[in-house]
Input
Amino acid sequence: LPCRTHIARRIRVGLASAIKRFPGACGVHPAWQEGTGLGQFDSVSDPARLVPGGTRPTTFTMAADGLSLAVAYIFQIGLAVIVFFAFSFLRVKKTLRRFYAPRRFDKNLEVKPRRLPPGFFAWWCAVFWAPEDELITVAGLDAAMFIRMLTLGLEVFSYLTVWCLLVILPINWSGSVVKDILRAPPSPPFPPPSPPFPPPSPPPPVPLNQTFPLPPAAPAPNCNSNPIAYTQREVSLLDVCNITNIENGSPKLWAHLVTVFIITGIVLKILSRYNEESAVLRVSFLSTRPRDGTSNTVLLTNIPGMEQGTFREVVRSFVGSTLFVMLPQGMKTAILDFVEGKVSKVMGKVSHIADVRHVAKLHKIEDVSEADADVVPNPAELANRPSEFQQSRMVLASEMKVLAPDLDPWLEAERGLDRLSDLDEDTRMKTFILNEMELCYGSSSVAAINPVWDQRRLDSLLKEFNKVKTQLEDYLDAVAYKLRRRQLIKQRKQVSVLGTTMGTWGRERYGSKVVKVDAITFWVDRLAELYRKIVEAQEVALSKPIPSAFITFNSRATQAHASGSLHHHSEADWVIQAAPEPRDVIWENLRMRAWLVGILSMFSWAVYIVVLIFYAAPVVFVQGLVNVNTLGEVSQGLYNFVNAPFVKQILESILPCVVMVLVLFPIPYFLMFTCYASGFVSRSEIDLGVFTRFFGFQIFTVFIYNMLAGSIINQWQDIINNPSSLVQTLSIAIPQTATFFICYVITSGIAKSAVRFMRLGSLTVFLLLSRAASTPRARARMWTPESRWYGGLVPWHTMVFFLGLMYSVINPIMCPTALASILITFICEKYTSLYTYQAPYESSGKIWSLMFHQLMSAVYLLQILMILILNFKDFFLGWLILIALAGTIVFHAASIRMYQRPMTMISVHDATNMDLADAEKHGHATPTAEELRMIRESYLSPVFKVSKPALDDLFHEAAVTSGRIDGLSIEDVEQAIEDEAYESADEADDEQVQAALEAQTADVDATASANGASWLSWAKNPMFATSSTKAPKAA
Output
């Protein structure tokens, strides 16, 4: 018996020690550890601390303690300081000056940024105090608007930091809720479930030789208490800065209520000033731009009367090319006729109903149903109806027959095109569009018309042409570089060629096996063949117009009038908008009509919503994976590791935020693809679409999903049983997640901006490939300014403003955190705007209106959250925030009415003043012939801009370089080219010229044929034929 007593005592001591050290592994919730201060409830005064039925309380596990937050601050700000020191050292290095300031050395830029001081830290102040006028001149108005948003954030959070740290933080600190929780005794262990029958009889008496008595039975739980009152939280000394430290119903909550009004007033006042200044800046920027294609041009889409882009053409193209390619022609025709017949019947019926209702609206006839529309054209069927009704319908039917051709834009357009059927396709389209524009905007209002042609076949040819041209240019530069250094070139470059990949031309010249040929000869021959195919494809494309065109007016006022008005009552036809820049146009999307764009847009939004819903899974998984308590329950060794000093703080404060940033990193590229597939006609529209969608995506993934991951998901069963507890659950969860979002703002704003500022990925590629690039042209392509897309950049920083403003009252520590984040971002982005990146487009400040709406959403959510939290805190006057909410709505609506259109279009008054300024400056109001020529060339697709003289110069350079490789001097090579009757491509196509030179080039032809040389006579030079070039079997 003594031995058994000793063993029992040792077992009990061991179990108690294990439960205390490893509660998760022993089946006991970690929050019930003795002496840790955890496991307490939100309502300290509630005597019923046990969940009814013996269920385990839920714990919010997303908060980090004060030490973890301090580690996050030190680590992230230290990283930013290291990055700034490294950049200050690297930017003055001779090999990296062009990489870190490429806009200073770009010869294509007319205006370059000023030279920075040579001091180690002198660039900080120079960039910080750089004037806005210089930023607009160098980087454009879009970059200036982005920097203005950061400046607005600095101004707002400077005021909020002072107020919240001096007023709200001491008030939160003076509360006693968190201190009472930390001083409270440990909670008892989990009780057994409540039995439905009376409790069993007490246990038998303890034996006399029992040394340690059994613990007393646990008290019965209070089954009548509210389940939501038992939500547990892990609290720390950091929570004394939180609003949860204030007692329920405390008069101190007056300060939080007043702070909401103060913050609302500050933000709205500053936004009002910035709105007015931004509108004036946009007008000033547009007035200083020279008269070019963008200022006087509109984009016309959905031109009616053309078969291209219609449902019939799309169905025929789809079925004929992919779906039924193996079916007989008769069966395919029958299927197409059936589909087109059904669709035409439905579309005709819908169009007929719409026209009837349109005329009925003109005559104020009500209740025109589908059944009435079917019988309108048949007055005989109306004999049994009342005479007044019959007369109105007969009048409606008779007027429909007269007005139907005028109401249908397609019938009117088809008649106009039929009258021009004797003209060629180019002249026909220009005349047809000119008649429509002069009808609406007056005679002599149009200066130039650029129809858009179907270029689907040309795109692939141009892509391969540019690739081969780049390869030839790089090799010629490398050879020229070695020859200038008097280096010996031992052998000519060989390339492996597979003829079957280049169609009939490749099979005839190189066979069906891989062969090695001379690189210069192959590239020259391939470029010549691609140019021939491009010319042929251009001729075919010029006979296939698509329903779009660029129209240049003689004045900016006419352009503003056309782009800002409704051209036709059918919004699916004759759609006019301000023309994007030529470099901004997506030519392949101009062939899509409105019906196809609508279908693709709905599909892209459906995909967006599906991805947004399913993205909750990785977010919840990441948050559960990086939770220290979850990781510690895997094994004892992992528990010891994750709870080690500094490791635990890194896992709690930095790792979740870094993983969240990495998870969101590919989303802008996905959104860019969906916007492109939706049929957007310009890169600026795609970027602005990504701008809006990415911010909304972050609202759900960063804020809502993370909040739900620590609150509702863990309490879904209680919420189902008591749905009214959802509001109370959110009120508890939102303040609890403040520490996590503070860490996220530090990571997203400070660390990410600093790492992006260094451009580590591009720097690695530059250092690795700079030695391989042996020519100036190849090296220039490596440090050429990179493009910066605002859609994937700005929402990261508006999200920092959003989180900072939302949690400024809940936890005042968020204010200086957001201020530091925006300050570092301001320095980094202002430098990159001036010296590093270039925008692929210029929208003239349209991004400001999008940023304004995103900043306003932060104000709305701040007010809604404070109403929710003050209501939960039993503060009876929390509803007064509805007054601030109503004022915010009024301000937002007024701002939209006053500034939305000025920030997206130009007024006719301002455009007229710009025309007067142009007339005074140039001496004439309309564009000159030279200006019109440049406008026509600018709004011509790149597939029609392949320069024949530039290609001839490249071929001449290739011939010279080939002779130099063989050891000839430049003079000998030039003389050889003249002796061989060098001809241009146009002369090579002329049979008469070839016949005249036949005798002169007979010997050269024989040599070139034996060595597989070019089909062009001017390229049939012995310098291209080498002993290493294999003659093709076909030759």
Strands lie at 59-60, 232-233, 297-301, 446-453, 494-498, 514-518, 545-553, 575-578. The two ends are 108 Å apart (CA to CA). Residues 742 and 814 are 6 Å apart (CA to CA). DSSP finds 43 helices and eight strands in the chain.
